[in-house]
UniProtKB/TrEMBL annotation, chains A, B:
GO molecular function, a single term: NAD+ binding
UniProt cross-references to SUPFAM superfamilies, sorted A to Z: 6-phosphogluconate dehydrogenase C-terminal domain-like, NAD(P)-binding Rossmann-fold domains
The species this protein was found in: Serpentinimonas maccroryi
Bias (Low complexity) ranges: 298-309
UniProt KW keywords: Oxidoreductase
Record GO biological process: tyrosine biosynthetic process
Domain spans labelled Prephenate/arogenate dehydrogenase: 3-291
Cross-referenced Pfam families: PDH_C, PDH_N
Region (Disordered): 289-309
Protein name in the entry: Prephenate dehydrogenase
InterPro entries: 6-PGluconate_DH-like_C_sf, NAD(P)-bd_dom_sf, PDH_C, PDH_N, Preph/Arog_dehydrog, Prephen_DH
Length: 309, 309
């Protein structure tokens, strides 16, 4: 049980965390800060936060749990802004989709508070952003990757694990660099490709007309192209080297498919498609599980449709 | 009302058509043919077809409605195999995802029967193939593109429209070449990209491990990569020129995004993502509608989840 969550950033991710924590009865009070006054007052009107803080620093003041839920490039400045009032026992987390850059920012700024920081990346989201889409079930049944530093205090790392498990998530521990390599492949590159595919339609004269003809395949393939531009600008910049390396792998695989098409080599083409089809058919998204030994209240609701099996 | 549907190909598309027609009370008898005896007997056991035909020719014999539901490359040989017993009044359709090649095959083979052929492409499907996934609701609420030839008899074209509308689909008429250009952009290229993205993971040592970390974004983006290899080999080969042209457009859009990443040009990157995000957010899949003046029984059930709004 936490006394006070200091929530910095009141968007989909942060708002959903606050709602989930409240519903689970794991926090007494949520003090929120957003650089947008409109978002902040909306967060309070929606009951996501209890108190509007006039600054990030004041949201952190008195908090025993602090969550940064911001575009990743804002992490370093936010650490600088809040470190002076961060309580010595508070658990500090983020929810950024890249981890090596966030860890580097923490090392540069947190000083004696570094052991309190447990970098987190919940594998959840929607293609819509904003506090009005905050959902207490967003993290239920999803994976949450934690990338603690060697300096992270083991008891803070354990608290972070138990907290996410209490929200219905399945927790994995990883090295930050390994995390960034993996998510470049399974998340950041797919977003980049979806952005490119939609822009390719937009740049053609008939593109908008063609869009009217698109069906459920296009709908699902392109869903992530509707993601938030600032959040994804930051992710693609923070993890550019890994994403560009994955794009080279992708282009090689695309080249192979196109070569088979150009040479009318049906057998090679079928083999390449069969390989993709088999790999994708066998794949199952990781399902969440609640650790039975959680010190927090156990989850009883079934997984939501946000990340179904 | 049709007396007899001659169904050639008892997979997801053909089986769903037969089930939908039966449920709507629009056909008295379904005679099916599959080159796989196992599939054929399963189709009968599942009640999708009433009679097993020993050949495509015999499935067509006596039919006043004939549907080819095969990988598109099999169209020409099938036309040759069945034309001798095709009744003079029968309506002949296919469900292929490419249309110019199917029209060319019809011109080369159907002779005096050419006016009976109404090429059709229902924008429906699942990432799973096979008769066991046949679904009477597959076409409900979906678009069906018809690409009649100048030689197509207007009354056959009208029957085809009314038939698909009676199954709950929204019918559009298009030129076959225009169809292939549009679907290269909104369907065939997305499939090619999804195949390449999954193969890119498969070709890396850590790929399978990374897949365990993938979430709902990857799930939706890559769903179509699980599609049937033979069907998609044929589609990509039949429409290779258009698909390769769309891939060049896509690569140009990807180049622009990567250039912004390489130059750490956050403003350009954000602008490119914002363009994709806005275009995709505004997009809505076309919803089906039943024409009120259909001569067939009107549909009363709401659209299924197969191609939701």
């Amino acid at each position: 049980m936490f006394e006070q969550l200091g929530l910095i950033g009141c968007g989909l991710m942060g708002g959903s965390f606050a709602l989930a924590l409240k519903r689970a009865g794991l926090v007494r009070r949520v003090v929120g800060y957003s650089k947008s006054p409109l978002t902040l007052s909306r967060a309070r009107a929606l009951g996501v936060i209890d108190v509007e803080a006039p600054s990030a620093l004041l949201a952190v003041s008195g908090a025993d749990l602090v969550l940064l839920a911001l575009p990743v490039a804002a992490t370093e400045d936010t650490f600088k802004a809040v470190r002076h009032l961060l309580g010595a026992q508070a658990l500090l987390m983020d929810v950024g989709s890249t981890k090596a850059d966030v860890v580097a920012a923490a090392r540069r700024t947190l000083g004696a508070h570094l052991p309190q920081f447990v970098p987190a990346h919940p594998i959840a989201g929607k293609e819509v952003a904003g506090i009005e889409h905050a959902d207490a079930d967003l993290y239920r049944g999803c994976q949450v990757i934690l990338t603690p530093l060697p300096e992270t205090a083991p008891q803070q790392s354990a608290r972070a694990q138990q907290l996410w498990q209490a929200l219905g998530a399945q927790v994995r521990l990883m090295d930050a660099q390994d995390h960034d390599a993996a998510y470049a492949a399974v998340s950041h590159l797919p977003h980049l490709l979806a952005f490119a595919a939609v822009n390719a339609l937009g740049q053609q004269r008939a593109g908008r007309q063609w869009l009217e003809l698109a069906g459920p395949g296009f709908r699902d393939f392109s869903r992530i192209a509707a993601s938030d531009p600032v959040i994804w600008r930051d992710i693609l910049q923070a993890n550019a080297a890994e994403v560009l390396a994955q794009s080279r792998q992708f282009r090689a695989a695309l080249d192979a498919l196109e070569a088979a098409m150009q040479h009318s080599d049906g057998s090679a083409l079928q083999k390449l498609i069969a390989h993709a089809s088999a790999l994708r058919s066998q794949w199952q998204p990781a399902s969440g599980a609640t650790a039975p030994d959680s010190i927090f209240a156990p989850c009883t609701k079934p997984p939501s449709s946000t990340c179904p099996p």
